[in-house]
Request: fold
Amino acid sequence: MLIVAAGCSDSKTNTQEKVSTEKTAASEQPTQSTEQPMPAPTAKQTNPTIISQNKELPSAGGNLTVHFLDVGQGDSILLEHGDDGMLIYSGEIGKGDDVATYIKNEGIMSLDYVIATHPHSDHIGGMSVILNDFPIGHFVDSGYAYSSKTYENMLKAIDKKNIPFETPKRGDKINFTSGIDVYVLNPGSTYFTDDVNQNSVVLKVTDGKVTFLLMGDAGIQAENEIMKDGYNVDADILKVGHHGSRTASGTPFISAVSPEISVIEVGAGNDYGHPHQETLDRLQKVSKVYRTDLDGTITVTTDGSSYSVSTEK
Amino acid sequence: MESFKVTLDRIEENIAVLLVRDEEKFKINIPIILFPSGSKEGDILDIAITRDVQGYRCYKKKSFSTA
Reply:
């Protein structure tokens, strides 16, 4: 518990890079409440300029900060915008306390949205602590019913606290906070029954010209469906699907996303060999790769026109 | 015989990740090749562990006789 808390306070004095982006992402999103399929993206026209920077960005309330928490082999992402907070997943069983402490240290005492991308325990294992510790405005779930007690207990706790339970589908918009667009790119209208990862809630988060694509554990099948349905997946920061497994991040998809930054949430010495080397090679060809096992908690802050990256280690 | 139930929480390539019910605080990794055919994510399985006392005696006997 203390390790993550210490990382939180230390991270702001550590490595920072500022990236200017000249992409015209602002024109890519519709203003209505559902995202319409877009033509396939074209290749980037400009390369970003990466500038070493030793000072912090101003902490104006308008900035969007995305924390990719180091929770070992699991995922946990905190979005912070002014007084609004969104938590995506909450880490493996036993990691809930670490995540809750981190959130409280950020001064966040309630969460507008909590999102369980899919019901595997490395993504909802710590949810009971989050449900207990924070008032929650909305709970978003993939909607794929699961047999585990962990999932059942999560649903019971949501019901007991009367938290609105939502299962958005591809193209829906989540009204998180003013000025930040959050679109759901997955799941689609039908669920995969043989691979729960493919039902992961995938979010495209846009602040002005800066776009994040948060993949959960979605793999190649889901990637292909999203692209087949015509959605624009072009993004600056990619939270890589399924901990850098070879089951995700297919070549056509990475080419379409063309990220500048790739973030892999993965535990050191995990049992599954994540991230797989061929996936790393693919990502490193097009982007700078950050990994929670090597970099600790990774924080990206943007004012909507440029962004900075800081790492705990 | 000790028997308990597990949830097949997920399959990571060739490894099945099991959670011991009901609390699901303990996690067990077992190669999927050892599972009944058709096993899939979300299955609830019974696991029985029995001590092979006779086998152990035979092993000890064999060990002594070859020592």
Q: What stands out?
A: Residues 58 and 303 of chain A are 9 Å apart (CA to CA).
